[in-house]
Amino acid sequence: MHSAGNDLPIEMQAGEIETRGTTWGEISVRSLDLPAGTDFTPLMEGLPGDRCGCPHWGYVLSGSITVKYDDGTEETTTEGELFHWPGGHTGWTDDGVRFLEFSPAAEIEPVLAHFAAKLASA
Questions:
Q1: What share of the chain is helix, strand, coil (3-state, %, to 5)?
Q2: pLDDT tens, N- to C-terminus, the chain (122 residues)
Q3: Is residue 115 helix, strand or coil?
Q4: Could you give the maximum distance between any two Cα atoms of the chain, in Å?
């Protein structure tokens, strides 16, 4: 299987935020384009610990993104860097970011459903 990032189906669009994704086998393949100031923390309210419990692996194409873990530590991933974010995190971008993300489909699906419900009620 293969796809251009812009050919993946849109899974979430809210203002300038656009995420595209699909499932290949047991892996969720996603392309995310987030404008400056995007903060996922409010969307995560109501998830266990108000954090994303799904691990992610990926690559930042442009910009940067910061994640904060349950233990309070923070790390910023910037353009050209690979990442692994274990479950138990939230994230935001100050300057905007575009990245590819790979996650276990069974673990990300409830998180995405939670986001969709939060956005629909906003």
A1: 20, 50, 30
A2: 788 777 888 888 878 888 899 999 999 999 999 999 999 999 999 999 999 999 999 999 999 999 999 999 999 999 999 999 999 999 999 999 999 999 999 999 999 999 888 888 76
A3: helix
A4: 38
Domains of the chain with bracketed CATH:
13-121 (2.60.120.10)
CA dihedral 53, 59, 63, 68 (to 10 degrees): 20
Distances (CA, A) of 60 to 33, 64, 111: 10, 7, 21
The answer to whether the CB of 85 falls within 8 A of the CB of 56 is: yes
Cβ within 8 Å of residue 80, ≥6 positions away:
60
Q: Which residue has the tokens 């673990």?
A: 107
What token pair was written down for 92? 């935001």
